[in-house]
Amino acid sequence: MSDSTPASPTPARSPFDPPGVEWTSVSPRLVRARFVVIGLVLLVPLVAGVVLATLVTPWCWSIVVVVVAVALWSGWLVPRQVRATRYAERDDDLLVRRGIMFRSLVVVPYGRLQYVDVEAGPVATRFGIANVQLHTASPATDAAIPGLGHDDAALLRDRLAARGEARLAGL
Known about the structure:
The chain crosses the membrane at residues 35-55, 61-78. Keywords: Membrane, Transmembrane, Transmembrane helix. By secondary structure, the chain is α+β, with helices and mostly antiparallel strands. The chain has 2 domains: 36-80; 86-168, Pleckstrin-homology domain (PH domain)/Phosphotyrosine-binding domain (PTB) (PH-domain like), CATH 2.30.29.30. 44% of the residues lie in helices and 23% in strands. It has a 4-stranded antiparallel β-sheet with strand order 1-2-3-4. Strands 5-6-7 form a 3-stranded antiparallel β-sheet. A hairpin with a 5-residue loop joins strand 3 and strand 4. Helix 1 (29-55) packs antiparallel against helix 2. The chain is elongated. The relative contact order is 0.14.
């Protein structure tokens, strides 16, 4: 009988957390900006539900209950989503990680970058944040980093554009 004990298995690393990567968080102001948008969207059905329930029929209070439930659920979910959104710049590529239940990790090689956009709507501008959108030859690439401060977004855009140009030139 041989005395061979199986080696203890090494804990499996998550495919969403590569070793040696230092992640950068997005701005916490993104939480407040998303709350404003959700509040504006939910305001119309809330007011309509209250008006209909008081003037027409009491069963319309169910609309108010649903709107309040969605608001509470969003209040719980949005901060977690923002904390889960991170990005990392490596030597050859950019990693963008997001999601809680349905997680995704997008890896964009710098040599595939065609251009980089910085976008900010009225709510994002009010909170001093912007989105950095990466464009590659593949239309399926969804590499966007939401909720960066204006200065951070501009610096990231410039760094990514420079790295993309250097990789395309073969440097």
